[in-house]
């Protein structure tokens, strides 16, 4: 938990315009922390920082109703399907207005895949 | 005089159009292949002794911040336009992160500005 707070503090200092997205970002980062703890996979600090920046931008896109372009289906073959599934799971907002699409799930899953591959070897 | 060398890392492994723009401006472009390329921008900048790195994903932040954490490069990210990129370059940043923008114009103008600033 301290890691998440530290990361968010650093991000808020460098990107003060993202301050309104911080609390939602924290909720998603806590879900990620919990999932990786269950899998017994450690997330190094530099990966946390990258994920934090990504999730902050994700929350801003969702808040603004912004959609990224659809990505090619074949790119999904490059990462472990469990990481895509996990990404969908942590981004799903049960009470919120947004619908997470495959592009958003994929972009976060690439972060998860980088951590998974680093600690468990390539798929 | 050596050419300006710019590394491109895109989360989806793209950036070929940016590379064309860089080369049209007289620079050398290195496109990192494969998914997750944005996170390798700092590593490739160091291994290739590059002058500048460009990172692309939803905000370009992951690649830029990874490069800053690992190598101490000054970075700016979350940019959405070529003009914002030029401003970041003029401010002395070495890794600049954008949303997805694989355009020749971006590569050409960033390389031209770097040369104009006297970097090369």
From TrEMBL, chain B:
Please name the Pfam families in this protein's record. Answer: Gly_rich_SFCGS (PF14272)
The organism's superkingdom is given as Bacteria
InterPro entries attached to this UniProt entry? CHP03577_EF0830/AHA3911
State the protein's name: Uncharacterized protein
């Amino acid at each position: 938990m301290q890691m998440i707070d530290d990361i968010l503090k650093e991000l808020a200092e460098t990107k003060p315009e993202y301050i309104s997205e911080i609390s939602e970002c924290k909720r998603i980062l806590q879900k990620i922390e919990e999932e990786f703890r269950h899998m017994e996979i450690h997330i190094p600090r530099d990966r946390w920082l990258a994920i934090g920046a990504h999730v902050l931008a994700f929350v801003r896109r969702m808040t603004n109703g912004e959609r990224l372009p659809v990505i090619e289906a074949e790119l999904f073959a490059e990462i472990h399907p469990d990481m895509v599934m996990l990404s969908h799971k942590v981004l799903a907002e049960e009470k919120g207005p947004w619908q997470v699409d495959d592009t958003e799930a994929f972009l976060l899953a690439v972060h998860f895949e980088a951590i998974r591959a680093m600690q468990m070897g390539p798929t | 005089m050596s050419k300006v060398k710019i590394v491109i890392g895109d989360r989806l492994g793209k950036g070929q159009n940016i590379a064309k723009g860089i080369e049209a401006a007289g620079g050398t472009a290195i496109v990192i292949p494969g998914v997750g390329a944005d996170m390798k921008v700092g590593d490739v900048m160091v291994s290739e002794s590059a002058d500048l790195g460009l990172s692309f994903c939803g905000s370009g932040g992951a690649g830029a911040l990874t490069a800053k954490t690992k190598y101490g490069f000054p970075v700016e990210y979350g940019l959405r336009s070529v003009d914002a990129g030029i401003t970041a370059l003029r401010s002395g940043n070495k890794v600049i992160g954008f949303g997805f923008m694989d355009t020749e114009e971006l590569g050409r103008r960033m390389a031209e500005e770097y040369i104009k600033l006297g970097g090369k």
